[in-house]
């Protein structure tokens, strides 16, 4: 996939149509051409909502749920989500820059043409999710769980994977060569379909040997 260049708010094609958000957020709401600028949500229940051509600047989500919501052509900058449910959400054409997702539930989510740039993902649950044409650029992914997920045309340039899990994941055209570090604690045997560099293969060799029960012993 070709990773699109980062954009400022004023560069968005719909920037001139954005209207400031006036709360509260509601379940099943429609948020088209809305700008969430500095908005703070605590235990918000906005599930099954539609966010279309919407922008989020320095917004904060504490807990709450946006489950089964749809995000079409959204721009998120310095957004913080802690303990929020994004389970079964659908994302198409999204840009998430300098954000934090901690303890976020994204299991069963579908993401297509989404770029995470300079983000921190900590204990994010992506089990059973579908990622297509997704890029993690200069991100930190710590304790991120891709178990049972389907990853197609996914890249990790400059990103650090720390204690990532890939059990029973299905990978195709996943490029790990430009990742800064590959810390994978589970699912090494399910990395078929991924491409790594020779130095990365050497780094993974001890864990791979342990995974298959290979004994390495020097005289």
UniProtKB/TrEMBL annotation:
SUPFAM superfamilies documented for this protein: Pentapeptide repeat-like
Q: Which Pfam families match?
A: Pentapeptide_4
* InterPro entries hit by this protein: 5peptide_repeat, Pentapeptide-BTB/POZ_domain
The protein here is known as Pentapeptide repeat-containing protein
Which species does the entry assign this protein to? Streptomyces mobaraensis (strain ATCC 29032 / DSM 40847 / JCM 4168 / NBRC 13819 / NCIMB 11159 / IPCR 16-22)
